[in-house]
Amino acid sequence: MSAAAGEPAADVPAAELVAVTKRFGPVLANDAIDLAVAKGEIHAVVGENGAGKSTLMSVLYGLHRPDSGHVRREGRRIRLRSPADAIAHGLGMVHQRFRLFPELTVAENVVIGAEPVRRGSVDRAAARRAVEELGERYGLRADPDARVGDLPVGVRQRVEILRALYRGAEVLILDEPTAVLTPGEAARLFEVLRSVTATGASVLLVTHKLSEVLAAGDRVTVLRRGRVTGRFDTARTTADELVRAMIGRSLATAAPPRGRGAPPRGPYALEVRDLSVRDRDGVARLSGVSFGVRPGEIVGLAGVAGSGQRELLDTVTGLRALGHGDSGEVLLGGAPVPRGRDPEVAYVPEDRHGRGTAAEMSLAENLLMGDQRRIRTARFGLSRAAVRARARDLVERFSISAASVDAPISALSGGNAQKAVLARELSRRTPVVVVEEPTQGVDVGAQERIHALLAEARDRGQAVLLQSSELPELRALCDRILVMYEGRVVAEFRGEDATDARLGEAMTGAAGAVR
Ligand SMILES: Nc1ncnc2c1ncn2[C@@H]1O[C@H](COP(=O)(O)OP(=O)(O)OP(=O)(O)O)[C@@H](O)[C@H]1O
């Protein structure tokens, strides 16, 4: 805990939002919100999906102009017409959706728009040095010459943070930074954030993970339906108190029901046999991976990012075809998967904004994707009314909060977009469901609901392959957990055996944990 936590505000806040109100048409996203961030603190902002957190952060970063209210920086009122103004005032943002150029290197991405110049051209050596120095200072290592498009999500995030620090951010706004990280990476991120706040800078942290808020934050502001419903000192509050401020009730204490009785037997719905794949450069990404998932079973996939999960799931879902130098097979119901996406495999991707949804299409259209055949009428093709009726049904059943099914899906908050993808995929009732990070960026109430939906899918007899970086999530839902390390499945755990220590050991390839 920093010293700033409980002290009287003798110091001027680093940044303040004063009576900020912001509407989107009929939606009152922020309703006279006051929030002050002290110097040197980690200030968390929590709330349900759609509570108005991202909107508020966007106001502070000059992306949205408030309808009323204003922003102060070190006690002085400032005018933010754009992110460029925010940056000039020492406000930096790390977005939930990274804004990096995949074709450029780490160093190029970090300095872009503020390139060091020498004799009239970009000084690449200086850019690389800057990245290395910042990395050193804050423990944020990233290879300056790596192409960003080749990096795993966790490292891309580091590049975003480096970019903000390079531009002199003294108030760093992070929108769900750990949603994409493994527990180990998240712990390292908080070490980084601590070294940032130790220099007197401040961190504003939007997150859904209350354990994280309590462990790493100094103070927390709770939003609900656009208003502040609580301000707490993390040293003097509890998760339950935060949940009540967030959703107006406590969470049900019971975990979702696990598979009852004996584990399912019989043939696999999904089977991977001795799968080995190589990347473009011929580097082995998967080596001899074999496992199966039976109907009525949830099999978890754990591992630090980049252990081969991406390649495995891409192959299983048919997004990646086996090519020259690859071997092994993927069987669905005993038969090899056809080329391309298989209609029998439902897929909830990690990147819901890219692979999961088509941003410019409406919620109704997004809910229909991949399932046109089922509601096409014989004579008239797709009926608009049927599309909308089906969408309304899913919105209701999956508690998706949206102004209208005709609005573009990009207007939905992150958590609601996720529920929409889940609604679409789970409702297809396919024999196999592949799910990546289902509760990333999703509020606690919706997490509860999503876990129950996955358990229902299992109880209906669907075979679920669940990749998650949340070990408690895997433990709560899975019949078995497979651990990947360096392209291999190195361990398998059931029930009580799946302790943090044992999973962690296997995830880092420690000897003894390997099967
Ligand atoms: N550009 C926009 N156009 C229309 N409505 C919007 C827009 N941005 C946000 N909203 C609406 O404003 C409300 C607040 O959304 P916001 O994204 O700020 O919530 P959030 O707390 O960040 O949610 P999440 O946790 O899901 O990310 C929601 O009802 C959302 O649908």
Automatic annotation (TrEMBL):
Coiled coil: none annotated. One of its GO terms (molecular function) is ATP binding. Keywords: ATP-binding, Nucleotide-binding, Sugar transport, Transport. Residues 15-250, 270-511 form the ABC transporter domain. It comes from the Bacteria. The keyword Nucleotide-binding applies. InterPro entries: AAA+_ATPase, ABC_carbohydrate_import_ATPase, ABC_transporter-like_ATP-bd, ABC_transporter-like_CS, P-loop_NTPase. SUPFAM superfamilies: P-loop containing nucleoside triphosphate hydrolases (SSF52540). This is Simple sugar transport system ATP-binding protein.
